[in-house]
Amino acid sequence: MGVPGSQFHAVWALLRTWPDAVVALRSGGHVLEVHGPIHAGEPSKVSKYFNLAPEGPGLAGHLRPDLVSAIYAVRLPGRSGDDHGVIFYDSAGEPAFGVYVPSEYASPDAVGMQRFEDTRLRMRSMPAA
Hints:
18% helix, alpha+beta, globular
């Protein structure tokens, strides 16, 4: 299920309900992962960035919602079963980053899976990409 990038803030708010997450970024053949909760953020008053609140462990930094063209809730085959997450795509249709329910080498947490399903269902009620 995909929604347009204009739904960034609504989807981000849903991801904040997840008890834990893995944010994966791919660049030049590398895969970087940040484990921890999804933090709140707010639009910058002077730029197009969405500034993440530095609330402790987890992803920190600045995102550009205006560069996100589509957002998809996905189930993908992984090394130890299916991976469940939300992928944010850029204007070229390439994945910019993904937020996943932690599951590497273990079964996904039941609460995390429920939050993923809640997110997926809520995304179905948003405009389609």
